[in-house]
Amino acid sequence: MSVMLPIIRLPRSVQLSLETSSSALLQPPEGRKIDFSRPFGEAALVSPDSISWRIFKNPIALIVGGIAAVILELAEPAVRTGVWKHSTFLKDPMGRLRRTGLAAMVTVYGARSIAEPMIERVVRMHARVTGETPAGESFSANDARLLSWVHATASFGFGEAYSRYVAHLSPPQFDALYREGAPASRLYGALDAPRSVAELHALLDSMRGRLEPSDIVFEFLQIMRDTPTFPTPLRWMQPTLVRAAVEMIPDWIRECLGLTASYGLRPPEGLMVRLAGAVSDRIILPDSPPSQSCRRLGLPKAYLYC
After folding, report:
1. Domain limits of the chain?
2. Most distant CA pair in the chain, distance
3. What's the rounded Cα separation, in Å, for the pair 245 and 254?
């Protein structure tokens, strides 16, 4: 990874605004708030010296990578039907985004005694989701093949977004990222999730002829452009980050989905996203899941920034 730059210290009012917005994005308004700083000393599913801990602390990588992952998921007909017809995304897109983001944070940073029961609940919930695609193909949300695709798209999305827009990752670092996700992916039931870049590329190649275009992809992109997810002063960035996600999709999949050049980044926008990614990687949010988790393990608050 590139050399770390100095930590950016913001005016107190700006810092508080970012912390409030970050908490609102990751903690659902209803239910018990998760305290990542407890139980003290308890390990997570992923080690704090991992690539994953550094990637998931960056909000630009999470937002852009998450959008890219969903685009790839929606290209698969069974996953698309499950997400669109059997979830709350259409009725409550912001709520669904919060829950998904929180689940990702718990999986990477949460203490095992919190992460493992949460994953078990997700698996039980998925067990109730079955149906048919518009083509009449039966599916189950707990199908290992579908789960492996979902986990592969997430690993690809977050890793590629970090490497493109925050700090370059080498091929061995990408391999490490995929290996680090293996314990959690097995708990979710994604038994064949890629463990390396080579396995990811093999999986992508195997999906030729399986992935297909759908108007739902464009509906999703419109929702992500229009649903308020950023603080008001930063909301103008949302459409640009959606385009940054489209820009990451492999060329043959973009062509398959009909995501023409107009859906990707304009030339000046790439620099803007990279600047936002680099700056956000130098701002410590003390109450964020990464910072709380460092405190849980007795690590310095700047551990992930040096």
Report:
1. 12-23+47-291
2. 56
3. 11
Identify whether the C-beta of residue 82 lies closer than 8 Å to the C-beta of residue 138.
no
Residue type, 298: G
How many Cβ atoms sit within 10 Å of the Cβ of residue 132? 12
Q: Quick one: how far is CA 118 from the chain centroid?
A: 17
DSSP character string of 109-178: HSBHHHHHHHHHHHHHHHHT-EEE-TTS-EEETT-HHHHHHHHHHHHHHHHHHHHHHTS---HHHHHHHH
Does residue 126 contact residue 141 with C-beta atoms inside 8 Å? yes
Cα pseudo-dihedral 172, 173, 176, 181, rounded to 10: -140
CA dist., res. 89 & res. 95, Å (int): 8
**Reported pTM:** 0.92
pLDDT in tens, the chain (306 residues): 444 567 877 666 656 666 666 666 666 656 668 999 999 999 999 999 999 999 999 999 999 999 999 999 999 999 999 999 887 777 888 778 888 889 999 999 999 999 999 999 999 999 999 999 999 999 999 999 999 999 999 999 999 999 999 999 999 999 999 999 999 999 999 999 999 999 999 999 999 999 999 999 999 999 999 988 776 667 889 999 999 999 999 999 999 999 999 999 998 999 999 999 999 899 888 889 999 999 999 999 889 987
Task: Enter the tokens of residue 100.
Answer: 């998904």
β-pairing, 138-140 vs 130-132, is antiparallel
